[in-house]
Design a protein that fits this description.
Blueprint (H helix, E strand, L loop, with lengths): L2 E7 L4 H8 L2 H9 L3 E9 L2 E8 L2 E9 L3 E7 L8 H16 L1
Antiparallel strand pairs: 1-5, 2-3, 3-4, 4-5
């Protein structure tokens, strides 16, 4: 199963970044509700474990908030491997906007 990981720097500090990220799934559903379904999230300290389906493809991963960056990692099914760049770009873009 192909993996993805990315880091998005920020200058908010860990607590402020956590506050902004609490609504990440709501914003994702609002903006991409027609493309994303079965969204789940579970916070455990500074880590958000998430999963969703897009175009019938299940994506699972985690997001860890650090003092100066957010790290995202996850797994893609083989059927989504060719869309890895698009998926990571979309995640990066949304996080950069949220953490700006």
């Amino acid at each position: 199963m192909p993996k993805f990981d990315l880091s998005v720097p920020h200058s908010l500090g860990r607590e402020a970044a956590l506050e902004r990220l609490q609504g990440f799934s709501d914003q994702l559903r609002e903006k991409h509700g027609d493309k994303v379904s079965d969204f789940r999230q579970e916070w455990s300290g500074d880590r958000l474990d998430f999963g969703f389906k897009t175009f019938g493809i299940a994506i699972d991963g985690g997001l860890t908030v650090r003092d100066d960056q957010v790290n995202v990692d996850g797994n893609l099914p083989m059927t989504a491997a060719m869309f890895k760049g698009q998926i990571t770009s979309a995640i990066r873009e949304q996080l950069e906007k949220l953490l700006a």
